[in-house]
């Protein structure tokens, strides 16, 4: 599906509810205003109205969508499962492995897999690698974790860092507080995406917090991608208003935040 997420080309939701819509389970502060849950609560967008809490509905894996990856000619970046967490506790491990198999046979496509549960991603990917006799993920599979504050930075970055991959990424969105000194973590990540929260009831994101991350990434030579300032951006203690509702127009960013880099893939 085409998308307005700036750091990918298309989203693919390979895990869906059997009766329509999607499901996920809220995990941390970053999930409070989950856009996927909002869409799922609206039948107009194909949702099933279930909240992202409680027990999952019956789910299905879209094996046909996975099979098609191997036949795509035009190279694209695929954000796999924007409406759920494919490494959720409720997702069968063999589904995760079937997804990785599909990615493995589509080496000209890039797959960006984002989780708030990198400890599960680590153990599932380790298992998959050992089943295939591999010591590292192929270059086209980018494992990533969401980070929203210092607690999730400390907790999640350590698991992501252990995944044997050539490109690992963070999605620091919604950024909910100043992350402080992140230098020690930057050696283990090859792309940092940052952004403030968008949508109704957006929590504030201070432009100074974004600037600090961008400066530290530049100093460490880690590619950084500023996705958006968010709908409630603050600068110097005042609201920083943008014409774009989510603060996603790069031309409205302060000069030093006008940066959207990607890692240069290096084959080994
Ligand atoms: S992990 Fe993502 S999709 Fe799932 S509830 Fe949290 S924000 Fe929503």
Structure description:
The protein has helices spanning 35-40, 63-69, 93-104, 118-131, 150-161, 207-220; strands spanning 10-12, 15-17, 59-61, 77-80, 110-115, 141-146, 169-172, 191-195, 205-206, 224-228, 233-235, 238-239. The mean pLDDT is 96. The strands form 3 sheets. A 7-stranded parallel sheet has the order 1-4-5-6-7-8-10. It has a 3-stranded mixed sheet with strand order 9-11-12. The chain is an alpha/beta fold. It is globular, with a radius of gyration of 18 Å. It is 24% helix and 17% strand. It is built from 6 helices and 12 strands. The chain folds into 2 domains: 1-169, no CATH class; 173-268, no CATH class. The longest helix is centred in the middle third of the chain and has 14 residues, at 118-131. It binds iron/sulfur cluster. Iron/sulfur cluster is lined by residues 24, 26-27, 30-31, 34, 36-37, 52, 84-85, 116.
Observed structural traits:
6 helices; binds iron/sulfur cluster; about 270 residues; seven-stranded parallel sheet; alpha/beta; about 25% helix; three-stranded mixed sheet; 2 domains
Q: What is the global morphology?
A: globular
N-to-C series of helices and strands: EEHEHEHEHEHEEEHEEE
The structure class reads alpha/beta
User: What is the number of beta strands?
Assistant: 12
C-alpha termini separation: 31 Å
* Number of helical regions: 6
Whole-number count of domains = 2
Ligands and ions found: iron/sulfur cluster
Biggest sheet: strands side by side, in what order?
1-4-5-6-7-8-10
CA gyration radius, whole angstroms: 18 Å
Q: State which percent range the strand residues make up.
A: 15-25%
- Identify low-pLDDT runs: none
